[in-house]
Amino acid sequence: MYKKFYRAFSQAPSGSPSSMLHMACHSHHYWPDVTLEAVQQYWQDAALLADDKWGPIFQEKIPAWQSAVARALNLPDASQIAIAPNTHELVYRLLSAFPIDKPLQILTTDGEFYSFTRQLQRLEELPNIQVTRIPKHPFSTLAERFERELHTGNYQLAYASLVFFDSGVVFPELIRIAERKPTQAQFVIDGYHGFFARPIDLSSIADKAFFTAGSYKYLGAGEGMCFMSIPRHCTLRPLNTGWFAEIAELENCSGSVSYGDNWLRFAGATMDYSCLYKGLAIFELFRREGITVEKIHNYVLAAQQRFLRTMDSAGHPFLNREHLIHHDLEHGHGHFFTFDCHSAENAEKLQSELKARAVLCDRRQQLLRLGFAIYHDREETYQQVFGSYE
Questions:
Q1: Are residues 199 and 272 located together in one domain of the fold?
Q2: What's the rounded Cα separation, in Å, for the pair 201 and 271?
Q3: Domain boundary at 254, 284, 314, which?
């Protein structure tokens, strides 16, 4: 049904079978065809307008992007959505707002994405920073254990993923935990593996938590356009700040460092806006065609159920229920499945076998991940994945 918007899906890479099944789409979705014209329009605007391009970008394009994101997440104030080339830049800017000479206690889990994990490991080398990591397993008690620790300790920052990148499991009750957070704690939700895949309603925590995500994965607009929603009345003063933060007052700079009451509080500096154009083109395509996040999610849920039915009858030694990492496949899972192959060697071998059958996927050490997208045919049974094990 939706495959018609993706020319790239019908054009296999050079030397590959024409029946390539792209299941690495939890990482890099194919871009809808409208993004080609969008990139060309960005080139035209930048080449013809030169420095004057900043007017349309800041007065038209960025507000349009913020409004589209706000609608997708049910956020009440689109002007509170900061943008940057990646989420790491935004999160580090938030971290820089805490006093560097005072103790900083951070609560998180042991299942966060690499960039945040690495950054915390580096920060822990400083004597004033302490990090507590709540084990994500077992998922059935994660919410209770995380919230209990949050209210027991004196944490200035709590950070957790809505959908874990290494398993696809949804953090149970995370939004409700953010609703009940202690007043003194800043709360950050990493929503990258859920944004524009699962329906997400942030209206109850819009002024209580930060939410980060971007266009690289499920929106399908490529790398380079990320965002972070900011609670209204935020008074944090990031130490890491760029000239965009005072772009509205460039002609009247006073020499002091002031911050606006909107997204510019967390603004950085110059970036490439081709991805902004691509993202807007996709938002408009989906609006025009009536494609909502709810429809996307239901489409993928149906695909996952077809996959599970095929898997259950295939008898594969690794792609089976025993090796599938999950908590609640119907209500608490992202748009990819992760299988624990017990060793990196097993995962690498299986990935190679799948590629030989024209199935593209990815792996993280012993974990092999298979993703689902709206450009998979509605009749796809995924028998191609299981080969001779059918």
A1: yes
A2: 29
A3: 284
CB 280 within 8 A of CB 65: yes
Q: Residue 15 — pLDDT band, cuts 50, 70, 90?
A: very low
Per the listing, tokens 């800043």 go with 186
198 and 159 co-located in one domain: yes
Both 137 and 161 in one domain: the answer is yes
The answer to whether 216 and 222 have CB atoms below 8 angstroms apart is yes
**How does pLDDT run across 35-77, given as a tens digit for each residue?**
999 999 999 999 999 999 999 999 999 999 999 999 999 999 9
Number of domains making up the chain: 2
Which of 233, 258, 284 is where one domain is finished? Answer: 284
324 and 366 belong to one structural domain? yes
pLDDT tens digit string along 157-181? 999 999 999 999 999 999 999 999 9
Let me know whether 137 and 216 are in one domain.
Answer: yes
pTM given for the model? 0.94
User: Can the peptide bond before residue 138 be classed as cis, meaning omega within 30 degrees of 0?
Assistant: yes
User: How many whole angstroms separate alpha carbon 188 and alpha carbon 211?
Assistant: 6
Strands 209-214 and 226-229, by their bridges, are antiparallel
Cβ neighbours for 333, distance < 8 A, ≥ 6 positions apart: 168, 169, 170, 304, 326, 327
| CA separation for the pair 325, 347 (Å, rounded) | 14
Q: Residue 120 sits in which domain range?
A: 36-284
**Six-digit token string for 289:** 């065609």
